[in-house]
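Record format v2
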Amino acid sequence: MDAEQYKWLLNGREYLCSIAKQFLQRRDVREAGSAYYFMMPAILVIGTFLILPLGYAIFLAFHRVQILGEISYEFTGFRNFLRIARDDRVWIALKNTVEYVAIVVPAQTILALSLAVILNSQIRGKNWFRVIFFLPTVTSSAVLTLIFMWIYNSNGLLNGILSRIGLPTYNWIGDPAVALKSIMLMNIWSTAPFFMVVYLAALQDIPVSLYEAATIDGISKWKQFTHITLPLLKPVTFFIAVMGTIGTFQLFDQSYIFSSGSGGPNNSTLTVVLLIYQYVFKSLDLGYAAALALMLAIAITIFTLIQRQLFQTNSLD
Amino acid sequence: MNYIRKSFNLKIILYIILCLYAIVTVIPFLWALSASFKSLAEISATGLNFIPHSFTLDNYKEIFFKEPLFGRWLLNSIVVAIFVTGFNILFNSMAGYALARMRFPGNKFWFLIILAVLMIPGQITLIPNFLILKSLGWLNSYQGLIIPNVVNATFIFMMRQFFLNFPKELEEAAALDGLNSRETFWQVVLPLAKPALAAQAIFIFMASWNNFLTPLVISFDEELFTLPLGLNKFKGQYITYWNYIMAASMVFTLPPLAIYAFFNRYFIRGITFTGSK
């Protein structure tokens, strides 16, 4: 390299440096730097523990995975998915979930709506009732399940009350025909108050003038409820139904604790998530479990998308 | 006159319904509380008395002093919940502020990522996260229980919405005073965001405190159980000793109840946010 070339290079470097300096001093670049400084923790954690796992889950679903010793993968194509269709326990879990949704979602929605409407009528002590009703929502599902198991005990409070008033008693935990219904009852009791609060907020958005006008026209309270309140609450009701359905699809803690992880008696409390857990930690069948989880996630995402679509109006900005 | 009487009657019926439901809500808690103060002999008898015949604190003494791991589980739950809550408040607000207020390449992209991530159900990341934590050597560790949960897309979204409505004038004044954007955030914006931070803190704390599935997958060493896992283990260990299990449940329920009692208006605000999102 001769001197002339070298000088040119040096100048070039200086020139580049000055451009870089100007660039870095520009306001928008500084701002972008600050912005990424603010975003960095979120990007790192979401990248590592949400986005990477999502891709990894899809990868796992198409492989047979061996985790004892060194982890190894064997590509199996769609075999895991084909196996889902032939798996009896999947169908049992699905049947349980459908039964669960069919009973729990309408029951908790109606209960939530009734409580909200009553609380919303000019009643004194409204806040007290609201605070009390909300108690189950702040209590952990593990504790609630244990409390209910204690109440459901064959010599427990519930059977005690039932026999005292001359009604038949049940084996709430051990009878396959009853166990899932016991969990349902608990679930309705513990989630209805949450949705009640959502309903209350929606009820407060309905203009009072509508009811005043109806009252002047001599329309009965019941008619006001069916012709004003219910139609205006339709979007919220739909939202609550979808949320409730998604929640029941994800049922795990209650069945796990209730059945000590087995889904019993006789698979009657088996849920999809519990089944996934069993395939991972009991059979170490990670690829198959990932395929199941993927199917569940797709189902849940479809529900969520439907819900988003219908609630576009007041989302984002 | 007739009309007033009718509406008066209706009100009474409504009150009765509300009171009945309040009783239905409270009874399981009272029954559990009463069992925690009864002796094994008394809970084994089939009495329906809520007031213990012989009031005893032995169950609490037993779980705190004779059960070696109970204190540890309580401590684990507290440590995890506090760290998770602290980091979330910080990181979600930072990300939400950047998305709401700063112009940078990728702003729109990251916002869409946050919205997309909101929809990923936890079940799908469960198995891969188990493997990722395994390869990081973080199974059975505090970092494994804490770090994957230090950011929450829902609350990044909430904080973004909050900062969008935040008065711009304050930041402009701060800029005139010569503060750069980081200083503005720490010294001016964050202190004024306290109500939003409080709502966030309560929800994150509760979610962490009550979380069952994730710790179940991550911790299998009993020393690193959080309390919900410990309670579940108690259930297997003391099959008929419901007095101990209920005492442990009451200890576990106390912190969230206290928080709820003090901050219940933030709860309602938080729910109406998530409920109408």
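The radius of gyration of chain B is 24 Å.
The CA atoms of residues 174 and 184 of chain B lie 6 Å apart.
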